[in-house]
Amino acid sequence: FSRPELTNILTSYPAVLICSLKKQIIPSFNLLRNLFQSDDKAIKTIKRYGAIFVYDFESYLYPNMNVLRGIGVPESNILMLLNRHPRTFLYSPVRLKEIVEEVKGMGIDSSTKKFLIAVLALRSMSKSTLEKKFDVYRRWGWSDQEINEAFGRYPLCMTVSEEKTMAIMDFLVNKMGYSSTLIAKEPCLVTRSLEKRIIPRAVFARELISQGLVNEFKLSTLFDTSEKVFIRMYIDRFVNKAPELLKLYKEKLKISEKKK
């Protein structure tokens, strides 16, 4: 660890200062190193959450690893999660068990990385907060089954604020005329930027359709492709036929940048 890194850990988590070097810090590091079979990964884990030294591994880390093992999460995925999101393992094992069983009940395969993303999504909020997010989707006509299926397709759709979800749904449904249930099949859209991606591309697409250059767009193609792919597929393709559209698209992007 460099001096600035140690300073950052100690100022962020001052409780580490009262941990015994011989009885707690060194043994904890050795346990992490043995789990990862790597000094580098152990160090990176500590850098991501320096307070890991404060916790009793017997009470938190090992029980939580066993919760994930017990539901069929591969060891490689467990270690990846520990390395990237160590806080997940320093959490009530009882609550983590509830979360993984809830995710499993939604039909997400526990052997996939998507399962861990879903666990992280639910772990990041209280039950009451999750219910509020469900209520937002219900207001747009989604059934509980559609909500669960959307979560299964793209778990991060539940991490978006209620305000952002409402704004994106309002734009796509009321201004663009897309079916709410169609958006339920493409839940990743609510995680995209309304100003930087959805509005500029929607305006561009609407003009292409009005000029008869294309008949329709798939939601995923229009809003979920990278900027590079979108430019190649549509802007470069039609720039000679409708050069004013490129100008329109760039203007919308500039407006969104100014709002940042």
UniProtKB/TrEMBL annotation:
Q: Does the keyword Transcription regulation apply?
A: yes
UniProt keyword terms in alphabetical order: Transcription, Transcription regulation, Transcription termination, Transit peptide
Q: Which domain of life is it from?
A: Eukaryota
List this protein's GO terms for biological process.
Answer: DNA-templated transcription termination
GO molecular-function annotation terms?
A: nucleic acid binding
Q: What is this protein called?
A: Uncharacterized protein
Q: Which Gene3D superfamilies match?
A: Transcription termination factor 3, mitochondrial
Keyword Transcription regulation belongs to the record: yes
Note the PANTHER family from the entry: CGI-12 PROTEIN-RELATED, TRANSCRIPTION TERMINATION FACTOR MTERF15, MITOCHONDRIAL-LIKE
Q: Which family does it belong to?
A: Belongs to the mTERF family.
The transmembrane residues are: none
